[in-house]
Amino acid sequence: MLFALICTDKPGAIETRKANRDAHLTYLKDTGVVMQAGPFLDAEGIMCGSLLILDVPDRQAAKAWADNDPYAKAGLFDDVRIEAWNKVVG
């Protein structure tokens, strides 16, 4: 089942994002459930959030994955939404 994680960084948290980026990217690769991922950018082109598409069995697995993301563990996010997603195009 596909789930979209829509994550919003805390204001002014770019240094937290940068400090944990390598661990986050390793987690994405090592877990094997991330179909697509990338940062949101603000008007100045600075990373300010994330969109990830996960292929996991259920919402509980998506939540567990999100909770174990190094970004989440570092306290980067102000908000994380987990939405069931149906791929139609692409």
Keywords:
alpha+beta, four-stranded antiparallel β-sheet, 37% strand
Structure description:
With 90 residues, this protein is an alpha+beta fold. The chain is built from 3 helices and 4 strands; from the N terminus they run βαββααβ. The protein has helices at residues 14-31, 59-68, 70-73, and strands at residues 2-9, 34-41, 47-55, 77-84. The chain has a 4-stranded antiparallel sheet with strand order 2-3-1-4, covered by helices on one side. Strand 2 and strand 3 form a beta hairpin. The chain is globular, with a radius of gyration of 13 Å.
Helical percentage = 25-40%
How many DSSP helices?
3
What general outline do the C-alpha atoms trace?
globular
Describe the strand arrangement of the main beta sheet, using strand numbers: 2-3-1-4
Quote the average pLDDT: 97
Spans with pLDDT under 50 lasting ≥5 residues?
none
The tally of beta strands, per DSSP, is 4
SSE sequence, one letter per element: EHEEHHE
What fraction of residues sit in β-strands? 35-45%
C-alpha termini separation: 16 Å
Draw up the topology in text.
Layout: E1 2-9, H1 14-31, E2 34-41, E3 47-55, H2 59-68, H3 70-73, E4 77-84
Antiparallel strand pairs: 1-3, 1-4, 2-3
In short:
With 90 residues, this protein is an alpha+beta fold.
